[in-house]
Amino acid sequence: xxxxxxxxxxxxxxxxxxxxxxxxxxxxxxxxxxxxxxxxxxxxxxxxxxxxxxxxxxxxxxxxxxxxxxxxxxxxxxxxxxxxxxxxxxxxxxxxxxxxxxxxxxxxxxxxxxxxxxxxxxxxxxxxxxxxxxxxxxxxxxxxxxxxxxxxxxxxxxxxxxxxxxxxxxxxxxxxxxxxxxxxxxxxxxxxxxxxxxxxxxxxxxxxxxxxxxxxxxxxxxxxxxxxxxxxxxxxxxxxxxxxxxxxxxxxxxxxxxxxxxxxxxxxxxxxxxxxxxxxxxxxxxxxxxxxxxxxxxxxxxxxxxxxxxxxxxxxxxxxxxxxxxxx
Length: 328
Description:
This protein is mainly alpha-helical. It contains 12 helices and 4 strands. It has a two-stranded parallel ribbon with strand order 1-4.
């Protein structure tokens, strides 16, 4: 929401007084944080220490896991903020930093999933033409740095602006729930900011990713290796689900809300806020992308599961043997 003064409209006040919505979002964030840190912690350990060689896909997955774990570390602060009734007590610098982490995770995840899709496209659809390119780790690392540079340059206003806002009617200080209209110098600057986020960082990568996975599935459609084809289809479906249900609602509602707020003084912020929390679900689904995208990751995870099953079976056998001996 944007505001030109300390007095807010009734819709904004009503949203900030909706304690039940804040509790619901907090419970959802707790669920996301637990799965995020568990799943991505295991994924990072496998990717860094148990997966070799470090192919382009693996490097992209490490980049994606880092962003997911950063989000998992930031969510507890959001949980506390919502449970305290949208009262921010950690100061403007911490507010800006955590907001940056929140949005950087979303857009770096989008760009990284696009990069993984392009890598699979090159490996399956164009293997001869791009074989040399795919083997150069430096290109992959440079690609990751370009992604971060693009995201951070786009989100630069969030780093340089005080995103806290004191609401005298409720005697609370919000964090990124009410934006000052002068955060950017003009309506044209706001339009450029929103256009870059929605179209450059979301819609374009979504189209590229969709093209890559459709091309991969078509290429494998006549392949005799049905297991490879099934994994490619499952990977494509997971990625499209993440884009469609985690990222698309948030980005489109951001655009709609901003246009309504800037030009018509109306708001759909409650829906946008809920979609923003739902976008964090992507960090829980990313390990499934690793499983279907990387043969090495899949093999190492299966090995761990098999070892656990074997050790459990051995324990049961020992217990049965001891029980039998004691009965004798």
